[in-house]
DNA sequence: CGCTTTTGACCAGCGC
DNA sequence: GCGCTGGTCAAAAGCG
């Protein structure tokens, strides 16, 4: 069984997901390395060619009675997310205060606003800023924060996740009638971002992508003592804090993707991200959501996570 | 008045 | 080099 990284080297992700190999001798689990397709939700939802895959994957996941969602695209993000290096995100914890992410912003230039005296100087300043930005960007290639994405079946676009977000952009998405919205955490010095978009193959599904790590506790959520649950679930507290899963009002269910080959995909993927070194100990919303997902199942069951994440018929195959 | 949302413009990266 | 696309900025408008 190959790992994702091993396979990634030789194939474009589209080939990998859409290509002949899916019809070859490989089983679905073998094919993905851990039982899940490696193609990102975004690709599968936004790329026309991937539509087929998307539907196929929905079926495989059992969309009719989906289990718990969550989809870790953290580092081995497929082609579409353009991670510089697969190792980066795993070995480097998210660096919320890094200026590299927003290097395109004029605020990032020298860290202070540009004063304008008159038109001439304004132009000069703009020229300076542009050249400085170029130099900065060529010297320091933009680094992406690790990403964590999941699909949520919901009627509302913006799901409450315990944090406050400010919308800073909206873009039309190619091959999708639904725009993508860009949000940033409103907390100062916290540069966590998230993107929201609807899956055009199923408008009832919202794809949420978190990027970065919160440097502060959730401003809206109380933090119940659920440490035991977290430990038993194998989820690092920091990871839970870094990527709080929305608490949705209208959600019926979630999908889960993750891209590693471990037996316990969710736990391994999150812990391997190595988040939470400076984050809050636990974010309740994440655990809260897990409760919603499990709906009656005990969180402390040994295989509870796997059950949440992997369709039962796939578990039987293992 | 302060904060959030909207939206057009700009920029970088990528593929051809 | 050019065009396309994703991501971000920032001014204006909206809202409580």
Automatic annotation (TrEMBL):
Residues 154-219 form the WRKY domain. Belongs to the WRKY group II-c family. The lineage of its organism: Eukaryota, Viridiplantae, Streptophyta, Embryophyta, Tracheophyta. Residues 97-112 have a biased composition (Low complexity). SUPFAM superfamilies: WRKY DNA-binding domain. One of its GO terms (molecular function) is DNA-binding transcription factor activity. It comes from Gossypium tomentosum. Residues 131-141 have a biased composition (Basic residues). InterPro entries: TF_WRKY_IIc, WRKY_dom, WRKY_dom_sf, WRKY_plant. It is found in: Nucleus. This is WRKY transcription factor. Residues 82-143 are annotated as: Disordered. GO terms for cellular component: nucleus. Keywords: DNA-binding, Nucleus, Transcription, Transcription regulation.
């Amino acid at each position: 069984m190959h790992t994702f990284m091993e396979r990634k080297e030789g194939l474009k992700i589209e080939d990998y997901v859409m290509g002949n190999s899916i019809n070859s001798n490989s089983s679905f689990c073998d094919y993905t390395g851990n039982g899940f397709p490696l193609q990102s939700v975004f690709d599968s939802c936004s790329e026309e060619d991937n539509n087929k895959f998307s539907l196929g994957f929905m079926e495989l996941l059992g969309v009719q009675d989906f289990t718990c969602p969550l989809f870790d695209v953290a580092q081995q993000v497929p082609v579409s997310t353009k991670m510089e290096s697969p190792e980066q995100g795993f070995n480097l914890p998210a660096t919320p205060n890094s200026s590299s992410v927003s290097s395109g912003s004029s605020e990032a230039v020298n860290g202070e606003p540009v004063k304008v005296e008159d038109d001439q100087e304004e132009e000069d300043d703009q020229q300076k800023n542009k050249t400085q930005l170029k130099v900065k960007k060529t010297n320091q290639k933009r680094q992406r924060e690790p990403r964590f994405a999941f699909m949520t079946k919901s009627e509302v676009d913006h799901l409450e996740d315990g944090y406050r977000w400010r919308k800073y952009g909206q873009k039309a998405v190619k091959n999708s009638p639904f725009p993508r919205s860009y949000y940033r955490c409103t907390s100062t010095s916290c540069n966590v971002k998230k993107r929201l978009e609807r899956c055009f193959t199923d408008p009832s599904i919202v794809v949420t992508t978190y990027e970065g790590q919160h440097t502060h506790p959730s401003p809206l959520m109380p933090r119940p003592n659920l440490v035991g649950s977290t430990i038993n679930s194998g989820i690092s507290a920091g990871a839970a804090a870094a990527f709080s899963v929305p608490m949705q009002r209208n959600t019926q269910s979630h999908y889960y993707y993750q891209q590693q080959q471990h037996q316990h995909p969710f736990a391994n993927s999150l812990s391997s991200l190595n988040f939470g070194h400076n984050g809050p100990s636990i974010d309740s919303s994440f655990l809260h959501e897990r409760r919603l997902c499990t709906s009656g199942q005990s969180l402390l069951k040994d295989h509870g996570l796997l059950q949440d994440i992997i369709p039962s018929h796939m578990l039987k195959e293992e």
